[in-house]
Amino acid sequence: MEVGVKGGSTHSGVQTVLKSARSWLVLILVVALFSINSTFRHTFFTQDYLPNIFEQSARNIVLAVGMSFVIFTGGIDLSVGSVLALCGVGLALSLSGQLPQWIVFVAVTPITAAAVVGAYAGSRRHSQSVRAIACFIAGAIAELVGGFVVSRCVHGGIRLEGAIVICVMIGVACGLVNGLTSSLGRVPPFVVTLGMMSAARGLTLYATDGASVSARDYPRLLALGQPQVLVIAPLIVVLCGTAIIKWMKTGRYFLSIGGNEQASRLSGLNVAGNKTLAYILAGICAAIGAILVTAMFGQASTNAASGAELEAIASVVIGGASLTGGRGSIVGAMIGALTITVITAGLILVQVPDTLQQVVLGAVIVATVLVDQTKQRA
Amino acid sequence: MKTKFTTLAMLLFPLLLAGSGCGKETKSNDSAPAGTAKSDPISVVHTGTPDKAGPTTTDSAASKGTITEADLAAVLKASKPYKILLIVKTLNNPFFKPMVAEFKKTAESLGVTAEVQAAPQETDVDKQAALVQNAAAQGYKAICITPADSKALVPALKSAADKGVTIINVDNRLDAEACKSASFTVSGYVGADNEAGGKLAGESMLTILGGKGKVVIIEGIRGVDNAEARRRGFESAVKDKLTIVDRQSADWMTEKAEKVMQNIIAVHPDINGVFCANDEMAIGAIVALKSAGKAGKVKVVSYDNIAEVRPYLKGGELYATIEQHPDLMGSNAARMAVGVLDGKIKPGSVLLVTLEEKLR
User: Fold this and answer.
1) How far apart are CA B190 and CA B199, in angstroms?
2) Contact B82, B141 (CB under 8 A)
3) Is residue B295 left, alpha or beta, with left meaning phi > 0 and alpha meaning psi from -120 to 50?
4) Strand partners, B298
5) Contact assignment for A55 to B263 by CB distance below 8 Å
6) Exposed (0-12), middle (13-18) or buried (19+): which is B259, by Cβ within 10 Å?
7) Residues in chain B within 8 Å Cβ distance of A229
8) Which structural domain, as residue segments, surrounds residue A34?
């Protein structure tokens, strides 16, 4: 966004190029440094090994894309890991027909929200109180009818497509709650999503009584966990994310809200709506991550993706986004995720003990941002 | 641009060098002979690992006051309807499910009120300490606990014991040194000898590999007593016969184990076996082996025998897993608590439940 004013017109072009290449440079630098080690050189640059890096980053790339939307608006979402676990359990349970009724009611929340919005828009010519009542009735009917219809449908176990819809709807529901509470309720996103992080993990445990849920008997699901899918699916998510940010108005709004919320509001942007949308997108990405992880291991673990939120935030930051919002790119987040994978994988390849791996990772995250900051100030 | 390169390079390079140096050091340490290594599961002193876990915990406590399940079976009915509590690490891990179920069932048959509490995450030491503190205030007569940390929970347990609560240590063992320096003694211990279990896993690996080959270890969280003990046991069993080419921690997690395994195969494509310190990690390792086309060829031995790994055992991707009977730990913990409260069992008793190698 902010191209150097000082450098004059001749410099600015070069700087923009450098800026967009910045995250690539970090990745290339990391790979180059590792390549000093011969074991790394001989294993890493092989046709067999390279796809592994994408496969190992799959979940993190998907979560980082979702996280990007939220961070672009100046928010943060700490709940993505827990939401992923909840979505995964929802997916596995609905396949086998053991989905508890209350999860169904959680899953139909988005329908309810849609009904409320519809009723609000539809009753435009009536008084405030009539509108409120209309919204309430529409919401209640949608929740109850939707809940009972869906729970009837999933009663005996459902096909994969249906289970995926339920899974995504759970993700949307969590994002909706995060978004509405932080934008309309004006609770800081850190607090809201911290609460959701705890609550979603708790619901996961409550739904399964602590055990993992097996999904090994569904070959069509397992097909989604094949290495090829784990390479392609995240790339598709990145493409869609880039499309939203680059070519859709919504994406530009995200960045504008993150850059200056007050100005965006004054220029007539629907700030609350767009913010909520960002959290919903993060929820959808968590659901996609859940599908991939569940398919990969043939089971939904209750401790799946614990700590994944921090990894996703780190990816977005390495990718050049500002945590205060308004700046960043989706491709950058993907590169960030790849960088993290290359570091963790590389350290195993060059046989650094695992206790030191965390140190190096931490150092790289801070160093990247530090260099970025100094450069911006200069 | 220049600043970025130099700063990062300066930061990464020494770490990389230091790192690889350390790696080698650890290795030579591992393969160094561990002094007296006889196959007696209990009285082995491990000089090979001078790190965190107190090496003499097992022998000192186990040699005195060891009782058998038959001794505890004599505890049939409680003299009073006590309130007893089981605090497990987390309900996140399927391992604790049978423990909790059997604890409740046995408590009911003994005629006492039983509750179960847990911290949200396996590593939440503070939360567990708070649970202990609250339990003392809520009037529980006995606390059975699987401590999240072998040392950090000692002060909380000590203050509960001072209020007259009977403390039974279950599964993960409290550190003897830490207890001693806090002048705290547990009223009983029920658990499995993780080192003996690791050894059993090692023997299992020796059997399937015919006594020679290259293996790797995927460990649990570093510094946690049972993770260290399982690794020690495994290492001592395969020492001088199998070559341990690498060991990495995957923090007990499936996803992490898959990534770790994938990278290990890349560096050591010729390994013959993998020991995973729990089943959840074994599932991750198997997925990685499968995508490398090595499932079933590289032998996997793991630990815990949770329900989720049975299909893998049946399919031959997992060769063996060590069952350490959390169900028996649960039921015997309840019996031990009531027995100590009623004076039927001597305080300070130790019960080691049977370990079992589960094959296909």
Assistant:
1) 19
2) yes
3) beta
4) B295
5) no
6) buried
7) none
8) 21-96+162-371
Q: Which helix (H) or strand (E) holds B215?
A: strand B213-219
**Residues B331 and B186 placed together within one structural domain of the fold:** yes
Residue in the block written with tokens 């509490």: B117
Q: What is d(CA B34, CA A323) in angstroms, rounded to the nearest whole number?
A: 51
Structure tokens at A267: 């220029």
Which residues of B fall within a CB distance of 8 Å from A211?
Answer: 94, 97, 307-308
Checking A365-371 for CB contacts under 8 A at 24+ apart, the result is A365/A314, A365/A317, A365/A318, A367/B7, A367/B8, A367/B11, A368/A26, A368/A317, A368/A318, A368/B8, A369/A317, A369/A318, A370/B7, A371/B3, A371/B4, A371/B7, A371/B8
Q: Which two tokens stand for residue B86?
A: 């089981």
Task: Write the pLDDT tens digit of every residue in A183-230.
Answer: 999 999 999 999 999 999 999 988 987 778 888 889 999 999 888 999
| Axis crossing angle, helix A128-153 with helix A109-122, rounded to the nearest 10 | 150
**Cβ–Cβ gap B260/A356 under 8 Å:** no
Q: Which of A50, A55, A205, A212 to mutate to test the interface with B (most CBs of B within 10 A)?
A: A212
Count of domains in chain B?
Answer: 2
Neighbours of B73 (CB within 10 A): 11
Q: What share of chain B is helix, strand, coil (3-state, %, to 5)?
A: 45, 20, 35
Mean predicted lDDT score pLDDT of chain B: 81
Q: Is the pLDDT of residue A164 over 80?
A: yes
Residue of chain A nearest B13, judged by CA positions: A33
Q: Are residues A200 and A345 in the same domain?
A: yes
Q: Which positions ≥6 away from B164 have C-beta within 8 Å? A: none
Residue pair B273/B299 in contact by the 8 Å Cβ criterion: yes
Mean pLDDT to the nearest integer, A113-128: 87
| pLDDT tens-digit readout, A244-299 | 999 999 999 999 999 999 999 999 999 999 999 999 999 999 999 999 999 999 88
Q: How far is CA B162 from the centre of its chain?
A: 28
Domain assignment present for B68: yes
Same domain, B66 and B186: yes
Query: What SS3 class is residue B323?
Result: strand
CA neighbor of A197 nearest in space, from A280, A307, A60: A307
Residue bearing tokens 């060769």: B319
Which segments in chain B show pLDDT lower than 50?
1-63
CA distances to A16, A34, B27, B208, B325 from B14, rounded to whole Å, are 32, 12, 20, 41, 46
Query: How many residue pairs from chains A and B have C-beta atoms closer than 8 A?
Result: 146
- Domain of B315 in residue numbering reads as 194-323
pLDDT at position B360 is 79
Query: Per-residue pLDDT tens for B104-159?
Result: 999 999 999 999 998 877 777 888 888 998 888 888 999 999 998 888 899 899 98
Using alpha carbons, list the distances in angstroms from residue B149 to A354, B127, B182, B186: 20, 11, 15, 15
| Residue B130 sits in the same domain as residue B234 | no
Helices A50-72, A227-247: axis angle to 10 degrees equals: 30
pTM: 0.78
Q: How far is CA A272 from CA A75, A191, A214, A277, in A?
A: 12, 17, 39, 9
